[in-house]
Amino acid sequence: MELIQQNPDIDAYLAASESVDHDHPLVKDVSERLAADHPDAYSYAEAAYAFVRDTIPHSMDSGDLRVTWRASDVLEQRNGICYAKSLAYAALLRARGIPAALCYQRLTEDDGSDPVVHGLVAVLLPGERAWARQDVRGNKPGVDARFSLGEERLAWTVRPELGEVDYPELYAEPHPVVLGALKAAPDRPYLDRTLPAEL
């Protein structure tokens, strides 16, 4: 699948914003700590990936009822669903000058029911010609996502026969439907009921 930049200006994928707030002191601090042991872009991107995937539980797995939608809040509260964890990873990448995009899949249950949009991050490392999608959702039994610049190692591979979709667009900001759902949710059970089914 060819990934498509929604914004042709690469600087859009380096910018700070309300949700990808890599100018926040906490994001900067985490970034600096990771970079101290991983000074080159490649090892830093992988270390930041592992940090978000492994040290910030997915709130549906952990049972945490809080909803986060800013990267700094995800890092502070150590909590978030896939969208929020993706914001944290994108912010950590952008904090080191590495272009990061938000992208999505549409996934379903095994019978094609209960469609939901799943959040990913695409990274463009120095010297690479193509974006590489990463999934920081967090592993669990049956899910084994890995950092990879070659063959994708996402949590799930889409099944078109069930109506699942890999959306090719790369967004500089969270899709409005996704951000709207996060901001409107007073708690995770409410968010569970209002997750977008498609973009």
Describe the protein in words.
The protein has 199 residues and is α+β, with helices and mostly antiparallel strands. The protein has one domain (4-192): C8orf32 fold (Roll), CATH 3.10.620.30. It is built from seven helices and six strands, in the order βαααααβββββαα. The strands form two sheets. A four-stranded antiparallel sheet has the order 4-3-2-5, with helices on one face. Helix 1 (25-37) packs across helix 4 (71-77), helix 1 (25-37) crosses helix 5 and helix 2 packs antiparallel against helix 5 (82-95). The longest helix is centred in the N-terminal third of the chain and has 15 residues, at 41-55. The radius of gyration is 16 Å and the shape is globular. This is Transglutaminase. It comes from Streptomyces vietnamensis. InterPro entries: Papain-like_cys_pep_sf, Transglutaminase-like.
Topology overview:
Elements: E1 4-5, H1 25-37, H2 41-55, H3 59-62, H4 71-77, H5 82-95, E2 100-107, E3 116-123, E4 132-134, E5 165-166, E6 169-170, H6 176-184, H7 188-194
Parallel strand pairs: 1-6
Antiparallel strand pairs: 2-3, 2-5, 3-4
Features:
alpha+beta, C8orf32 fold, four-stranded antiparallel sheet, 6 strands, Transglutaminase-like, Papain-like_cys_pep_sf, Transglutaminase
Strand content: 5-15%
H/E series? EHHHHHEEEEEHH
Under the CATH scheme, which class? Alpha Beta
Mean pLDDT across all amino acids:
96
Low-pLDDT segments: none
Helix and strand content put the structural class at alpha+beta
Total DSSP E strands: 6
Biggest β-sheet strands, sense, barrel? 4 strands, antiparallel
> Percent range for helical residues?
25-40%
Give the overall silhouette.
globular
DSSP summary: helix tally:
7
CATH topology, by name, is C8orf32 fold
Q: Which sequence of strands runs across the widest sheet?
A: 4-3-2-5
- In total, the number of domains comes to 1
Question: Any guess at the CATH architecture?
Answer: Roll
Terminal residue distance: 18 Å
Rounded to an integer in angstroms, the radius of gyration calculated over CA atoms is: 16 Å
Organism: Streptomyces vietnamensis
Protein name: Transglutaminase
